[in-house]
Amino acid sequence: xxxxxxxxxxxxxxxxxxxxxxxxxGDTVKFQPDTPALVDTLPRxxxxxxxxxxxxxxxxxxxxxxxxxxxxxxxxELAGATAARDALLAxxxxxxxxxxPDAPNNVDHTDQDSVRGYVLSNGIDANGRMxxxxxxxxxxxxxxAHRCSWTTRGSTPRSTPPS
Length: 163
Hints:
- This protein is mainly β.
- The protein has a single domain, classed as CATH 2.40.50.
- Helices cover 9% and strands 32% of the residues.
- It is built from one helix and nine strands.
- The protein has one helix at residues 78-92; strands at 4-11, 28-33, 57-61, 98-100, 103-109, 114-124, 130-135, 147-149, 158-160.
- The chain has a five-stranded mixed beta barrel. It has a two-stranded antiparallel ribbon with strand order 4-5. The chain has a two-stranded antiparallel ribbon with strand order 8-9.
- It is globular, with a radius of gyration of 16 Å.
- The two termini are 22 Å apart.
- The relative contact order is 0.24.
């Protein structure tokens, strides 16, 4: 099964509606694709359509399962969950991120509401989220590479051919 590269922006806060914005966690982040129509071309694992709107679609990271920061008031070791969320946001390049004290999953302030990047996806999950690998800065992943390694912000994703 092939992968589709989508260019766009990772979004963690809606300036006009910060309390109604995305709620990022350690394995899911909102993405606003430059070409939303590409999302409709992705395979649907369970037949459910992609849950995309004018503000984007949630991306569930491929092969990552982090602790939940919000799960019907039933946290899964909250310190680990918030550490995973904070690490993901930092890897994406978000800085100065704070959350509302009375709504700890909503971003109150950040130095940037969105950052540019790419998603490499091969489908939509049963919850209508795009499943994918994420890349930033704006350097496309090599779709012909067999293995890619995560790099720090400001560098280019590296591809290693099979040995």
